[in-house]
Amino acid sequence: MDQQVYAIGVKGQKWGEAEKAQWLNGQSVKRSYHDEVLVKILALKERFELEQYGALSYDVDRYPLYAVKSKNWDLTKPTILVTGGVHGYETSGVQGAIRFTETKAADYAKAFNILVVPCISPWGYETINRWNPNAVDPNRSFYADSPAEESAALIKLLADLGVEIFAHIDLHETTDTDNSEFRPALAARDAVEHSNWNIPDGFYLVGDTINPQDAFQTAMIEAVAKVTHIAPADEDGKLIGVELAQFGVINYATKALGLCAGVTDAKYVTTTEVYPDSPLVDDENCIVAQVAAITGGLDHLLSL
């Protein structure tokens, strides 16, 4: 696939404030964070502790940020972090985090403290966007003095919680709009060219290059394979241009890249990637795959 020309900016020149403003002016609300996410989170209040850990300054009433905690928090238990919606357009990440909380989290709370942050980027959820209104990618912004308030709010939540995270599972998707919209926009914003446009057809995981924890990743892939298909390698034996670590798994330098998966020093870390545009899946299958990844990982940890 050739480099696409984006409608905003001049090729070869990075965006300034005028281009970012033009981009923002083209965004619109396409679905309801309140109806599709908040209502489901608030319905959990009898079974879990809900913590509002902030609100996005773009509209503090419209975009409150919530975390869901298991009751009877016990500092002697390992703590599990599940995050979704870092990229708001990645629907099954948000809905998968909620579904896990609704259906499975209480069972695992017998052995673990469970912390679920279902939708880190609610503006992105409503506008179906990868970036925030400032044309910043929250999933490249998990570091000190973050330029993304979505990322900074999660960092503060975890600091205030003051516990060591044992495992972190971050739920994502890779969609066809990565090629039709988000990569061209990124290329235009940063005046760069992209050489890899492959979107894997199926589920895969991204582990941490420094701390891959291969058996943990294997357990999740095996669990997900029972409910949906795992992405095969491309003709070069890679996924999104990266060498396979094992079937269905690649590794990234999560901390160096500022990824959500690198926000803690957890021993066990992974990022899920679902492909919702595959002809082999539907929305429900994508949500079920996300839940299977979480439970497969937790079952592995329980077996250690």
From TrEMBL:
Q: Which GO terms describe its biological process?
A: proteolysis
Domain (Peptidase M14): residue spans on this chain: 29-298
Q: Which InterPro entries match?
A: DUF2817, Peptidase_M14
Q: Name one Pfam family in it.
A: DUF2817
Location of the active site? 273 (proton donor/acceptor)
Q: Which SUPFAM superfamilies match?
A: Zn-dependent exopeptidases
**What molecular functions are annotated in GO for this chain?**
hydrolase activity, acting on ester bonds; metallocarboxypeptidase activity; zinc ion binding
Which family does the entry's similarity section mention?
Belongs to the peptidase M14 family.
Entry protein name: M14 family metallocarboxypeptidase
Q: Which organism is it from?
A: Shewanella fidelis
